[in-house]
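Thread: Newbie trying to understand structure tokens

Hi all, I'm a second-year student working on a class project, and my supervisor (Dr. K.) asked me to get a predicted structure for one chain before our next meeting. I've only ever worked with sequences, so writing a 3D structure as a token string is new to me. If someone could post the tokens and maybe explain what I'm looking at, I'd be very grateful. Here's the chain:
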Amino acid sequence: MIARRTVLAGLASLPVAAMGAPAPAPAPAGFVKRLSPRLDAIIPPSATVEFLAEGFRWAEGPVWVSQGDYLLFSDPPANTVYRWRQDEGAKPFLSPAGFQGDIPAGVREAGLNGLIIDKDGALVAADSGTRTIVRIDLQSRERTILAERFEGKRFNSPNDLCIAPSGIIYFTDPPYGFTDGDASALREVAHNGLYALFPDGTVALLDGSHHRPNGVAIAPDGRTLYLALSDEKQPEVRAYTLGADGRPTGQRLFHDFRADLARGLPGLPDGLKVAPGGHVFATGPGGVHILTAEGEPIGLIGTGKAVANICFGQDGTCMFLTSSDRLARIAMDHGRTPA
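---
Reply by user tm_fold:
Sure, no problem. This is what the structure looks like when written as tokens:
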């Protein structure tokens, strides 16, 4: 199996200096590729990618905390959640963030991955280390496990999540947290699933057919659920039509990244977010692909490296990007994206 981080990062060998010593690789530059004039209403023509912090093992799961005017993002391999503020930069906020004791053998990513803020202002996270969906009070740091098993068996390593207007938490459970992936002796469920955690605590498997379910996001009206497949053989975003009970009634291909992957662009489908107007922001080969509600690409934002995930922040005036070992930001048109 191709290691996920290797594929996502799209690593290239370093250039060699004349004397044979490795020369430092230049820092990748950010860019905005405009595929349609409609992008100007979302990303201002003057906007550029700004790098805010670096040096992380694998930056993931950004979420804006409007009550405190700061960003949280995770580094799952380092078992740390960082807080970024405009006036102080990025500093550790939760460490350890996921697994709290000695990390068991066979666990590769002991930290939190996807992060989201619930209606009460608490952090809800996909905890790869403890293999749970966990709620963390940001003031007391008290942790409450919301879900840890399906049909009596422990999850693999919950990866990403979103909360529907109904309060349903949708989350994915690939094996990325295991050193041995699908072959790990720690596995208890045989599939890599897309799940729903209902407000009454019930957990339902919605789809267990995909090899690498990853990013998940829901449309503002709660009727469409998007799922990214970080699968080099099926690099797609799928769209599920949801019934009144929050369960899928059908699914379709929303966007195919095979051509981008074939071009050797860094990354695979990973994080997803949906703006109020229905535009889908999907990380994939090359960066963040901005798609209409019909799946038509209108723009691409790149950093030169794989982009794992994104979030909107600062009162809707910007988008934050977690990109390999770096945190970046780009300006957005005020009022057209969620805070």
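A couple of things are worth pointing out once you decode it. The longest helix spans residues 4-9. The domain at 30-331 is CATH 2.120.10.30 (Neuraminidase). Feel free to ask follow-ups in this thread.
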